[in-house]
């Protein structure tokens, strides 16, 4: 990522920040920024986002509510590349690569810090709050592997951790930093009252990869598409998800649940994707990823499945009438269409992805990778839990 790319996002109002704080929008990151501001430091918050976490649209609201200078940084491509390569520290209880995620964000934050001329990085991490990524040994490993040991401070737990070079330099006064640990929020709430915060976010992880419902959507994308990218995971967030496997090949279909889904699906299509819709009556929109290369039986089955989510199509079929379906896609050679008549049906080639099979695949893959790395069998669970 180039300096010009790093600086391309709106950076708020404060010139020449001294400290860049990784900012999720949660209470801990707000408090980390406020604690450092209280020492007279110029603070800029950095909100990183991807298809799995972050909400850049919320930044203007956070600026108003919290009075903070907040910039945004899109880390989607780098995050997807990390998932394709598989996280070195493994997944948590679901599909969350918490340790590798923090390493990746800190590496990008350091580049941003250097690009804007700041001297220090900070996070809202709390010792012992998350058993996978906020144990003392893991916090040390993250700092080391991200290459930020010389510039990182964790203000909320600072006096429970070894003094950082930033504190030893005098830039940050260690004695004025908190000593918070554990999963409770009592001390954070006391700090929030101290700072007069009126908008306190509710606790929550905020990462879609920690949720089973989302992970069952993402794992087929990651495990069946060798070069799964940002656009693929954006599509995985939308509508109802279906996969089928025919003649050694995987096929992927997303079907809108409402008009909002339909609009988002339309925006998510790219070259070679098919938009599948009912020809003569209202109904959902479906998108087949790279469906320009699908055989006709697979397209017809996709149309039948999509039609089954239209009440009017189902009623028409009950009267013995087929339903007209069309598919449209764009190729380098120009637009193309397919059309046919189908009977709405949900039993057939297409299946919704389920979490338990995905979970078993994830654990089997992790076990195999650990065995390959060590040469001997090891326990199946990763180093910690989310």
SSE order and pairing:
Blueprint: H1 3-6, E1 19-22, H2 27-38, E2 43-49, H3 59-66, E3 70-74, H4 76-85, H5 98-116, E4 120-122, H6 136-145, E5 152-153, H7 165-168, H8 186-194, H9 212-224, H10 230-236, E6 240-246, E7 249-255, H11 259-268, E8 274-278, E9 286-288, H12 296-307, H13 311-318, E10 323-331, E11 334-342, H14 355-374
Parallel strand pairs: 1-2, 1-4, 2-3, 4-5
Antiparallel strand pairs: 6-7, 7-9, 8-9, 8-10, 10-11
Helix pairs in contact: 5-6, 9-14
Q: Could you explain the architecture of this structure?
A:
With 386 residues, the chain is an alpha/beta fold. It folds into two domains: 3-208, Rossmann fold; 211-342, no CATH class. It contains 14 helices and eleven strands. It has helices at residues 3-6, 27-38, 59-66, 76-85, 98-116, 136-145, 165-168, 186-194, 212-224, 230-236, 259-268, 296-307, 311-318, 355-374, and strands at 19-22, 43-49, 70-74, 120-122, 152-153, 240-246, 249-255, 274-278, 286-288, 323-331, 334-342. The protein has a six-stranded antiparallel β-sheet, with helices on both faces. A five-stranded parallel β-sheet has the order 3-2-1-4-5, sandwiched between helices. α2 (27-38) links the parallel β1 and β2 (43-49). It starts with a helix and ends in a 12-residue tail after the last helix. Mean pLDDT is 91; it is low at 1-12 and 378-386.
